[in-house]
Amino acid sequence: MMNRRDFCKKSVLLFGTLAVPLAAFELFDPTSLLAEKNDGKEVRWGFLVDTEKCVGCGFCVKACKIENEVPYNADVSRTWVERYVVTKDGKTHIDSPKAARDGFTTEKIALGEGKFLDIKPDDIAKGFFVPKLCNQCDNPPCVQVCPVGATYQTKDGVVLVDRTWCIGCGYCIMGCPYGVRFFHPVYHVAEKCTFCYHRITKGMKTACVNACPFGARQIGNLKDPDDPVTRTIMTERVNILKEEYGTKPQVFYLGLTKEVR
Amino acid sequence: MVHGEAWTIKELFVYPNEYIYWSIQIVMYPFMTGLVAGAFVLSSLYHVFGVKQLKDIARFSLVFSFALLPTAMMPLLFHLQQPQRGIEVLMTPHFTSAIAAFGIVFSTYAFIVGSEIWFVYRKFFVETALALQAKTDKSPVDRFRQLLYSVLTLGAWDIGEEAMHKDEKAVKILASIGIPVACFLHGYAGFIFGSVKANALWMTPLMPVIFICSAVVSGIALCMLTYIVTMEIRKYLLSLKSRKYIFRESMDELKSAEVHVVTMTAKYLIMFMILAITLELLDLIFRGYTAVKSWDILRSIIFKRDFFDIFILQYSIGNALPFIMLLFPRMTIRRAAAASVLVLLGVFMMRWNVVIGGQAFSSSLAGYMHYVMPVWPDSVESYKEGLFGALTVGVTPFVLFWIINKVLPVFGVKDSH
Q1: If pLDDT is split at 50, 70 and 90, which confidence band does A97 have?
Q2: Each residue's pLDDT tens digit, B18-57
Q3: Closest chain A residue to B18, measured at CA
Q4: Exposed site from A181, B89, B104, B165, fewest CB < 10 Å?
Q5: Cβ–Cβ gap B82/A94 under 8 Å
Q6: Which numeric CATH code is attached to B24-195+379-417?
Q7: What architecture does CATH give domain A141-191?
């Protein structure tokens, strides 16, 4: 039978011995270790789209599909380009045939179901192209709604999907106001733009940034004030998509107008 | 082929990745959970609030709610792209997601319904087991049944006055905890939709409440319908027997009991229908009045594209017509049955208009998507997310009810209390 004194002694000993290994978690905190390894530099990936420079060639879409192995002919894509044609009567016509993989090969606006709308050049008030990709939101609704935590935000701000853990319920697809998510035709799990995470973490640019011949797409580190992308965002008049949803998107646009959806 | 491409027709500007990802099974899911919750609430009206007139249907709806339980899960498994990983929702729930609550709410609810049934049937288990024990020449079936019922008693053989009184108390407590849990089970299904801020049609705090009310409506309607059908079958069987023996009296008894129960249940059905329709109309009026950015496209969906589904099938045939039918005096069995069928159609169309209607427009608010339900199953996908998959889910509770009824007879048993 243990008396009170023994009990107290043994308890102290037990907690003491437990405390030593537990302290290791504080001493060797993985995140602080990683920070030291990167010279304490913090990274937050951000994207800058200059819509004035985009000509709708679709090279970015093509490059993305090949780089990220999204089946080439499948009608889904991690990134796409939208064409906006505003006519003089104030109407806006938008299309993105095959996600603009092959660019815009006809002047006619695709209406879906194989129907097209022919607009006379004289009727056009303005026309422009808007590339779209995942906004890597600071407050991502897709991460919030995933019932199993298969989609998550990395420390440097990119939202990824764990293909081995996704149950394929589609809640994240429903939760995204930008329509960037879809089911991968081969893996049958949620799929999305990752800012080419496998490339940017190795010091490369994303496939779409590399493929753009006009510099309409740029990626940079928002935490680095000397980064050209960050400088533009800080000094120029940039805008974001669908601010009203409170998602805090991190893809910034130059030359965004009210017609853009 | 991309998932969703087979049944989605796009019109005008729809984002390239948008398809109708939530199809018929996601319509079935809230419909089935609604039936579960509604059936349970109906049985609780007797157990908790002591509505004596519902005694006959209370036991019935309790067992039926038990039979419906597994089918609340079925549509989800049919819908998942990776059904083998479905268990992760229970094992590694991510609690910021509304769906993650499913495991906890569903198992709590299953536990409550299961234990309530046990208390209600305990006396029957004991009596049957003892009767079988006393039997001298037992067939293998008898021996199996004796074993089964002995196990089902869980070792509680006391059926004295005092023990029965305790059982009664337990049932009352379980049923009263069960009501909020049943409402939560369904309210959270509404929350799954209501909390999607990306969807202009779904996002409303009224969604969970609307879902609960329509759940109770559909549950009561289905119980009433199934009750009528089973009673008719019993009457028919009795009439077959009475050709041989003169046994008219119990036939009249059955008839009067049936009319009585149905009239009473119909009253509750009307009450909950008023509540459900009021809330739905409030939501519609509020949207029109506030007319935020999305109203333009919502209006074109509600009043043009889905007009037939919403105003004809749901509100007129599914709500207004049965409402009038139920309000008329001198309720007949046939009228009540027809009204229940229409109410069920109305609630189903409400689920359809929420789930499919919510995806009828693109989040670009500049294009439409049209859902063409796969009918003939020419692939696993078109079976799972098509007419036949939905029918499988719809038929299962009746098959289960038939099986469960073999062990837990709903009719012709005296209550434990």
Answers
A1: very high
A2: 999 999 999 999 999 888 888 888 888 888 888 777 787 8
A3: A179
A4: B165
A5: no
A6: 1.20.1630
A7: 2-Layer Sandwich (3.30)
